[in-house]
Amino acid sequence: MRALGIEGAWLLEPAVFPDERGSFHEWYRGEEFRAATGQELPLAQANSSLSRRGVLRGVHFADVPPGQAKYVTCARGAVLDVVVDLRVGSPGFGRWEAVRLDDVTHRALYLAEGLGHAFLALADDTVVVYLCSTGYAPEREHGVHPLDPELGIAWPADVPPVLSPKDDAAPSLAQARASGLLPSYDACRARYRELRGVTGRR
User: Fold this and answer.
1) Contact status, residue 163 vs residue 5, Cβ threshold 8 Å
2) Which tens digits make up the pLDDT trace of 87-113?
3) Where in the sequence numbering do the catalytic residues fall?
4) DSSP string covering 105-170, please?
5) Whether the predicted pLDDT of 146 surpasses 60
6) At 51, is the secondary structure helix, strand, or coil?
7) DSSP letter assigned to residue 196
8) How many C-beta atoms lie closer than 10 Å to residue 16's C-beta?
9) For residue 65, is the peptide bond before it cis, meaning its omega torsion is within 30 degrees of 0?
């Protein structure tokens, strides 16, 4: 796993072994994850979504603590997957980074608590699966509008976005910050230290 430009985000680029039957790859390895992040991967829930081309989900995040970390891969099709730093006080606040996840490279993305997550399906019948560190709790889960000009995410111009009513009604980054909805960088850092303390690493 290699760290991305946003603190708390890592990308796994696994070796894929094709043969006449299909292919095999390891999309999660505990030892490699611990070496990169300094902690175990808490697992409370596993989700799967099916999307047609153009479906845009996010930008989603959860209250910290406890937050919700995600480990994401694309089992079928392709997505442009985006990480957004929503942690107020972070040196990278408001920055985003995009990676392509698909069923050819089988890359996987880990996002720590406090980071925003969104993806755009680039093909019909795209399946995204993700592991979550905490279970679904609607009262703790929020969104920022993925088309907010202040965020300026460079979604592909040739793929018209399709948003759910909930995501389309999400506040802008400025509105979310002004209302106190966004997690603080200090709270996120404290949460990371807590999780790393479980493995004895600081």
Assistant:
1) no
2) 999 999 999 999 999 999 999 999 999
3) 60, 130
4) T--EEEE-TTEEEEEEE-STTEEEEEEESS---GGGEEE--TT-TTT-----TTS--B--HHHHTP
5) yes
6) strand
7) H
8) 14
9) yes
